[in-house]
Structures are given as C-alpha cells and as structure tokens.
C-alpha cells in the first residue's frame, strides 16, 4: 500500500478478520464485505486475515512490536474488524493481534462487523469498544450485526439481508467521516512537526 497521504488520497481500510478457526464462517462474510466495499469510491480495502499471521502469545513488548502486519496496519486510515462472538466475547487471536501493536491504532477509527448465533456478535463488539480507546483509537457508533449468518449461505456465498446492507452502509458512512477527519488531523500534526 502507498503510505503517502493527501486530503484527496483514497481512504485505506484494513479489514481485520478475527477468527482463526479452521472451520469458520468468516470467509463467507469477508467475501461479501469485500464485494460491497469494492463498490465504494475512494476506498482501498486491505484484508488482513489473522489466520495467516504468526503472532505468538509470548514476546510482546510494552508499546508494541513490529510484526509482519505492522506496516499494513500503520498505512491504514481506518479499520473494520470482523469478529465472531465466541463464549460471549471475541477471539483470543484478535486480542493478541491488538496487543502486539500500539502506535498503529492511534487517532484512527474502528468499525465492526460481528456475527454470532443469537446476538449477532454484539457482546464481542461491546468488549472491543472498551479496548480500542486505550490505544487512542475511536470506535464508531454504528456496527453490522449478523445473527446466525450461516442460515443465509447460498450458492454465490453469503446472502445479506436488506437490513444488513443498510447497517453496512451506515457504518461505512460514519467510518468514512471519522477516517477523513482524523487523517486530516494526523496530516496537520505531521506538517506542524516538520
């Protein structure tokens, strides 16, 4: 990804896939999301699949550590976290990935797509809303909640409802506003420091 940023540059969105299970529904959801995101002008989506990233549970240092995905997270203007709800929470691999990094998250917005059997992932998302502000990230109010999405898997992948598509549009509108606003602030800070 190009790391040079101007006010007119496309927004760089890191789509973080939080499930690392071998049998997972995240692939179908991510396929749907990337198709929807590709239709948004001025947006570059970069899917970061935590199942493909080696982040051990040991070795993190205070203040973060450079990893195979550090540069991609740093280059992002915003994040869209795709998280299942496991046992009323989010996956350990997702918390581990968050903890391996520090400055990458600062002054950037985070949106959420959650999924689960009965809650649509809301409990996982609400817990993540407590974590990201500690890293100086801003979580957006709107979110996409997919309740039992495996019941809507068709021959062409995940078949979202109108309500889910509307929730994604609302989330992306809010994420876009925060991403552009916070990017302008980061650019102004860099210009002032130069």
Automatic annotation (TrEMBL):
Pfam families hit by this protein: FMN_red
First-level EC class: oxidoreductase
Molecular function in Gene Ontology: oxidoreductase activity
EC number(s) per entry: 1.-.-.-
InterPro entries: Flavoprotein-like_sf, FMN_Rdtase-like_dom, NAD(P)H-dep_reductase
NADPH-dependent FMN reductase-like domain ranges (all copies): 12-147
Keywords, ordered alphabetically: Oxidoreductase
SUPFAM superfamilies the record matches: Flavoproteins (SSF52218)
Domain of life: Bacteria
Protein name stated in the entry: NADPH-dependent FMN reductase
